[in-house]
Specification:
Radius of gyration of chain B: 26 Å
Helix content of chain B: 25-40%
Oligomer: heterodimer
Radius of gyration of chain A: 27 Å
Number of strands of chain B: 21
Largest interface: A-B, 21 and 30 residues
Number of helices of chain A: 14
Number of helices of chain B: 9
Structural class of chain B: alpha+beta
Mean pLDDT of chain B: 87
Order of helices and strands of chain A: HHHHHHHHHHHHHH
Distance between the termini of chain B: 49 Å
Mean pLDDT of chain A: 87
Strand content of chain A: under 5%
Largest sheet of chain A: none
CATH class of chain A: Mainly Alpha
CATH topology of chain A: MetI-like fold
Number of domains of chain A: 1
Helix content of chain A: over 70%
Strand order of the largest sheet of chain B: 6-7-8-3-9-10
Strand content of chain B: 25-35%
Order of helices and strands of chain B: EEEHEEEHHHEHEHEEHHEEEEEEEEEEEH
Low-confidence stretches of chain A: 1-8
Structural class of chain A: mainly alpha
Number of strands of chain A: 0
Shape of chain A: flat
Shape of chain B: elongated
Largest sheet of chain B: 6 strands, mixed
CATH topology of the largest domain in chain B: Rossmann fold
CATH superfamily of the largest domain in chain B: P-loop containing nucleotide triphosphate hydrolases
CATH architecture of the largest domain in chain B: 3-Layer(aba) Sandwich
CATH class of the largest domain in chain B: Alpha Beta
CATH architecture of chain A: Orthogonal Bundle
CATH superfamily of chain A: MetI-like
Chain lengths: 324, 384
């Protein structure tokens, strides 16, 4: 009996510290958990619920409308334009801004001292307020007094007129840019790239510092003669994790484009809604027109896209580009 | 495999001269170590031989051809880096295959996915796979071929780096401190393996190390470098027994050689006032230094040349190294004793020391070896 007592006591004692530790752990994570629940998960859940209603701010009640909001999203032509504009923007801006960011990073990285100047120049648009920059662009793109068309007009009468674009421009006037439904979304894309690629460049520059110098020497000894071969063998694989991050961040930022469109066309998403992107739609429906239900539905869809991108990123990071 | 000649190589970084006219001939199949303290320029010299760095002056010849202005990838040399520099995204097999893929396949055959269906690609891929398998068998890493470098231990990575170097037949192998990242036990084991590999391949090896033990145990010849110059290049036993310079004598050998001041009066040399059984030429400098290896000193009671007290004792089992604080001199000398003599070496014990005149290495005041010192025959037997 005596031996039994002594052997059972330590076991009981060993169990209670574990429990105590678990209780402390929960206690310590509770504030963070509460905050996350309150400011992240609850709003998402509320938006999710509201997307099935016809609620408007100020109304005393609301009706459940089922999937009607979502049905509208996929049937009405306005929303078809919204999807086209958003995906055109994402598909154009992401690859070009990532590619330019990588190219600029490689060039800046190989330049030494002068590179620092270029680094600052390319990063300036990132630091500037996009809304203010959009107004500057609006002036530049003004059809008659803007700097862009004035510059283009200088090409009239020169050999440049042999190009179809100039021939047409000199004869019938250059594009209206922001007022032309064929150009509007591309101008937005251009500004998005101009504004965003400096950020990608900085991320790639950070990635480049982690590439082991000696690997380039090893590649040279192994017979990699051209810069392209060294890039394929050393730089690009080493930048894998950076690329996944840069692409994800760029995608999410591209989905979120809003300020340029709001600055150029505060009344409705570009000529013929050709630049009616998701974020602007959420703003227009949910805030301006106080249609919380449909606004929430677009928000949920937006969340699904971003979530999907994040999941792809997690999967890539864990599966393909993690070298340990 | 080829002969290698380094001809009056100089290298300056800004105002600092790192290599001051290095010349060295390396025979076909020879194992030459470049050894010296850190910052002596040995790694720079190796990188100049490899072509990764440009010399400020001088020439490098491989098999009789001047390659000074040839780029590294065209010199047909293999290099093992201190950090191993394995491609982290490739498996062991792919890492080893890189030099062959780069040299035997053309750009289209190396393309991902479509490269495989290019004409001739599959035959070459088979040849490469065989060569990789062979190299892996030689280095006993054939079970690791599918792993990534991140999943390997330091010793295994080192083998993969070696495998990548020996998968093709280069003119020479360049090894830049390949063992310095391994633990002591593994270093001893890999040391003998590299030496065996050299014998088996019968290839030219140039091996850079700061560890004199590595240089002594593996090399056919050791080039001792200091301050951007080669002080002596000779077989290990010559470098140890017959150094040209006091810096070589001090660098090679562990524990360090004992250096003591001697004075010359007429033809006789005096150590702390005692006449040594050595005779110098009359034109030798008045103040000289002698170097005595720990094993050259012995404990003696009859007519000791020096006396002192045991200050510290290190028992390594098979041998004992004792530091003796000399009565006549402020410094300490280290002697090597046998375990049987241990009872004489208790701390603070008074001991007398003697040495054979033939074992004393005499250096001039600036450190150059003086070889025209003769041992007086009768005195040698007296001391011994």
């Amino acid at each position: 009996m005596v031996t039994l007592d002594t052997s059972s006591r330590p076991v009981r004692r060993a169990a209670s510290p574990t429990k105590r530790q678990a209780r402390t752990a929960w206690g310590l994570t509770a504030p963070a958990l509460t905050l996350m629940l309150l400011i992240l998960l609850v709003p998402v859940a509320v938006a999710g619920l509201l997307s099935f209603t016809n609620y408007s701010l100020g109304n005393s009640g609301f009706d459940w409308v089922g999937i009607q909001n979502y049905e509208r999203l996929f049937t009405r032509s306005t929303y078809a334009k919204m999807f086209i504009a958003t995906f055109t923007y994402v598909v154009t801006v992401v690859p070009i801004s990532v590619g330019l960011g990588l190219g600029a990073a490689l060039v800046v990285n190989s330049m030494g001292r002068i590179g620092d100047i270029y680094k600052t120049i390319y990063f300036l648009p990132v630091m500037a307020t996009l809304l203010a920059m959009a107004i500057a662009w609006e002036f530049m793109l003004h059809p008659s007094i803007g700097a862009v068309n004035r510059t283009l007009e200088m090409g009239c009468g020169t050999w440049l007129e042999t190009l179809p674009f100039f021939a047409k421009g000199c004869a019938d006037g250059f594009p209206l840019w922001l007022g032309d439904r064929d150009y509007a979304i591309w101008v937005i894309c251009f500004i998005g790239i101009w504004q965003g690629f400096g950020f990608n460049m900085v991320l790639y520059l950070a990635g480049l510092t982690s590439v082991h110098r000696e690997l380039y020497h090893a590649a040279e000894m192994d017979g990699a003669k051209t810069g392209w071969e060294r890039f394929r063998l050393v730089t690009w694989p080493a930048l894998g994790p950076t690329t996944v991050f840069v692409v994800t961040i760029s995608c999410i930022r591209a989905f979120q484009v809003f300020d340029t469109i709001e600055a150029f066309w505060p009344q409705g998403g570009g000529p013929n809604k050709s630049a009616y992107v998701m974020m602007f739609a959420i703003f227009e429906k949910g805030i301006q027109q106080n249609l919380i239900g449909i606004g929430s539905a677009i928000t949920m869809l937006f969340l699904v896209f971003v979530m999907f991108l994040t999941l792809i990123q997690r999967w890539l990071v864990e599966r393909k580009v993690h070298y340990g | 495999m080829a002969q290698l000649a380094i001809n009056n190589i100089t290298k300056t970084f800004g105002d600092t001269s790192v290599l001051k006219g290095i010349s060295l001939d390396i025979q076909d199949g020879e194992f030459v170590s470049l050894v010296g303290p850190s910052g002596c320029g040995k790694s720079t010299l190796l990188r100049i031989i490899a072509g990764l760095e440009e010399p400020s002056g001088g020439h490098i010849m491989i098999a009789g051809t001047d390659v000074t202005s040839t780029r590294a990838s065209d010199r047909n040399l293999s290099m093992v880096f201190q950090s191993y520099a394995l491609y982290p995204h490739l498996t062991v097999a792919e890492n080893i295959a890189v030099p062959l893929r780069m040299r035997t396949m053309n750009a289209t055959q190396r393309l991902p996915l479509i490269g495989r269906v290019m004409p001739g690609a599959s035959d070459k891929a088979k040849e490469i796979a065989q060569a990789v398998q062979h190299a892996a068998n030689v280095l006993e890493i054939d079970l690791l071929l599918d792993r990534k470098p991140g999943q390997l231990s330091g010793g295994q990575r080192q083998r993969v780096a070696l495998g990548r170097a020996l998968v093709r037949e280069p003119a020479a192998f360049l090894l830049d401190e390949p063992l310095s990242n391994l633990d002591a036990k593994l270093r001893v084991q890999t040391r003998s393996e590299i030496a065996e590999l050299h014998r088996r391949l019968n290839a030219t090896f140039i091996y850079v190390t700061h560890d004199q033990v590595e240089a002594m145990t593996m090399s056919d010849r050791i080039a001792v470098m200091m301050g951007g110059e080669i002080l002596q290049c000779a077989p290990p036993e010559v470098v140890y027994d017959d150094p040209d310079d006091i810096r070589v004598a001090e660098f090679i050998g562990s524990p360090k050689i004992n250096i003591l001041p001697v004075e010359r009066t007429e033809r006789d040399l005096f150590l702390f006032g005692q006449r040594l059984p050595l005779t110098a030429k009359l034109d030798a400098p008045a103040l000289l230094q002698i170097g005595l290896r720990p094993e050259a000193l012995r404990l003696t009671k009859t007519a000791p040349l020096m006396t002192g007290q045991v200050a510290h004792c290190e028992n390594l089992g098979s041998e004992i190294f004792a530091q003796i604080a000399l009565d006549e001199h402020t410094g300490r000398v280290v002697i090597k004793a046998t375990p049987e003599e241990r009872h004489k070496l208790s701390l603070g014990a008074k001991v007398g020391l003697g040495f054979a005149a033939t074992d004393a290495l005499v250096f001039g005041p600036k450190g150059k070896r003086l070889r025209d010192i003769e041992a007086t025959a009768c005195s040698v037997s007296e001391v011994a």
